[in-house]
Amino acid sequence: MQTPVLQDTMAAVAAVDLTKVYGSGDTAVRALDGVTVGFARAQFTAIMGPSGSGKSTLMHCLAGLDTATSGQALLGGTDLTKQSDKVLTKVRRERIGFVFQAFNLLPQLTAAQNITLPLELAGRKPDHHLYAHLTETLGIVSRLDHRPGELSGGQQQRVALARALVSRPEVVFADEPTGNLDSRSGAEVLLFLRNSVRELGQTIVMVTHDPGAAAYADRVVLLADGRVAGEIDRPDTASVTDALQGLAAAR
Ligand SMILES: Nc1ncnc2c1ncn2[C@@H]1O[C@H](COP(=O)(O)OP(=O)(O)OP(=O)(O)O)[C@@H](O)[C@H]1O
To answer: ABC transporter domain spans which residues (predicted)?
Structure first.
């Protein structure tokens, strides 16, 4: 049965009363304290909040990279909190795309091999039209035979973007995807993410500290102390900066 948060928002991904406690006793940290939030299909959502507010923990629980203490982490109809490690590995490989701050490409493989590796591990063939579209749009066609060590940071992140999207995942989770890039490369990455929502109907959830990056999203979800502290529809840099300053002042 679908939960209300999924029905209401047509969410691709949702947290329902999600809690995560690290450690126990006096040293326990309540990183998530009852988070209920949906991430709509074909929308670009940024998660923001002060350091330690639970952004990474929320993303990791929703991506099946970490186990919640209680509540539900829903990907489509699947509650990830109820799955075995084996199933979670399959879900991450087949249904989710990841983009990390540190690119996380395999150094011994070419760019082309990095892009298609997750599909091959899942026993699937790449969609050649989508592969061509992504590599052309990202401007990496001439770099496909190169290894990551022969590519700039911006080029490596564009390879990581192609890898994340080529399997048509239900959601792409991006963790500070522009954190290691200069402003021009960062803007290219963000523009590509925004366009992939418009053109491919991709669902994207991005954690970022940068109000300028969040302004590329359709919506910002704000966290503070492990709880949802607000949201902004159609954010711009000023509205996001104001909201973050408000959260910092309330502490
Ligand atoms: N493995 C862990 N063991 C213990 N505590 C942890 C662990 N991971 C995170 N925490 C704690 O949980 C809380 C939330 O951390 P989290 O990394 O999710 O916050 P964040 O908003 O992503 O922070 P930042 O913006 O600094 O990356 C913090 O108090 C953090 O110290």
So the answer is: 13-250
